[in-house]
Hints:
- This protein has about 375 residues and is α/β, with parallel strands linked by helices.
- The chain contains 14 helices and ten strands.
- The two termini are about 30 Å apart.
Amino acid sequence: MDMRRRQIIFAAVFCLQPLLSLANGSLPPAPPPQDPSATRTWAMGFGYLPPRPTVEDVLKGINIWSQRSEYAVIHEELPWKDLLGGMSAEAILDRDKVKLVEYMRGKGLKLFFMADLNDGLSRGEEAPQLRMLKRSITEPAVQKAYRSYVLAVEKKLKPEIIGLMPETNLVRATAPPALYAAAVHAANDVAADLKAAGSKATLMTSVQVDTAWGKLATNNPYVGIEKDFADFPFTQMLGFSTYPYFAYGKPEDMPDNYFIRLLNGREMPVMIVEGGWTSASVGILRSSPEQQARYFTRMAALADGVKARGWVQLLFADLDISSFPKPLPPILPLFTSIGLVDANFKPKPALQVWDQLHARKLVH
């Protein structure tokens, strides 16, 4: 349920440009905290997906959001076409990601990498490139390519956090059983690979919170995530994916135990890894910039309640979908207005809330 499949369109273009020749984007600096004694346990961050697939917008976005972040996020579909076409994972990363990560680390940011094993906008399906190639994650050769890529990411990019499968419960609820079983097998295998390689990265899977509550496009009883704990025993930090505007009329309707109920008494570290609240009304969904700003206030209280270790947004800026290659996924407009600035980097009210939260002292 995110926009990451489009990131690969411009990733290679990024590395062909002289990174430091472009002017820095800027916004007013974050204000001081309203309460100088206020603290937060959650490091904050953003994905690098820009409003338009251009190098200029990638860099302008990074230069703005890095001033109000500790983490940079790469969360996307694997480059299956190249991997299965014989190109090494190392060569792909040298072409597409190494300079990008160097640039973001030059801003003092840590790296969180999440690998999508299926379609990020349609969890019941194979990844778009695999569908195009008529291949499947159920194939041992495809699983081997996934393992090789994640190991190369660890070696080349050295992420502090590596996510091996996102929204596991939503995949299980919507995908064919064989696809889910293959993804579970692949994720556990690469976790063992990383351990054998001596990786020091924190290993993560994520769950879709609204699915666990039985409220994603339904009004079912609470389901929980006990199956996810059993299927992914390597998980060292649990990620929360949350798009509550699909389930609640206003941010204040989210229950106080929205996150903590899922842990069922466990002390496992957690991190909000994707989500948001639209600032625009779309279809039957009603919202506004002011309501979006209240979401960040509410989410901060919920993150405090579980002493979350992190909170990242995949979108800093709204997407200008007219600039992206067609065809576009039909549900994409539901997510294009969750940025803290608009597609021209003009701040929304939510940015002021984020900046006030980021001004709190980070404590561990």
